[in-house]
Structure formats: C-alpha cells, structure tokens
Amino acid sequence: MSDVNSRISDLVGGNDVVLFMKGTPLFPQCGFSNRAVAILDHCGVAYESVDVLQDMEIRQGIKSFSDWPTIPQLYVKGEFVGGSDIMMEMFEAGELQQMMDEKQVAKAES
C-alpha cells in the first residue's frame, strides 16, 4: 500500500489542484464528479484530474490516504478539501474561490 500512497502523495504534492474523480472532466462517470468538475471550471482554476476508474489501486488508496470514504475528492495545495457536497457548500458561500485566491492557485488557460 505504501507504493500507492507515494503515487497519491506525488500527485497531490505536484499539482496546485487535484481532483480524484470517476471519469474525466470531459466525460464524468457520475453526477458527483460532474458537479465537482463544473464547480472547478466555474472557479476558473487549472487542475489535474485522476480517473479512479482506470486504476483500482488509486481508487482504494485515495480513500485511506484522505480517510474519506467517497469519490470525488479535491486537494488544493496539498490539503484535502472534501467531496462534491463540501465543494458545493464552499462554492455557494464564496469560500472555495476565496481559498483558491488566497493559495494563489493557477488560473485555467482560456
């Protein structure tokens, strides 16, 4: 399991924003992942996505890495933020955009 944890740690540490999701941003494979992508796109930030359906080790490993049972999972500057419900609550309150700005997350290329 340590190999998976180091792979996840490299992904989380090597990118400003990482979304572990089912599917891809162009083709989300569940409604929660779709909502997470829509929120990030609306925030206008650059992010890396990891399709957990393509890698069963990551799919299981991310749950113990974050101690969070569901996917999608969002990380910003190495910090676990939460799943789509938490993302939605933070987005609606303006907190997610504020976090992205405070942490100086790179903007998406237009």
Automatic annotation (TrEMBL):
Domain called Glutaredoxin: residue spans: 17-81
Give the organism the record lists.
Qipengyuania aquimaris
Which SUPFAM superfamilies is this protein grouped with?
Thioredoxin-like (SSF52833)
A GO molecular-function annotation = 2 iron, 2 sulfur cluster binding
Q: Where does [2Fe-2S] cluster bind?
A: 30
Give the protein's recorded name: Glutaredoxin
One protein family per Pfam: Glutaredoxin
Concerning its family, UniProt says: Belongs to the glutaredoxin family. Monothiol subfamily.
In terms of InterPro entries, this protein maps to: Glutaredoxin, GRX_PICOT-like, Monothiol_GRX, Monothiol_GRX-rel, Thioredoxin-like_sf
**UniProt keyword list:** 2Fe-2S, Iron, Iron-sulfur, Metal-binding, Redox-active center
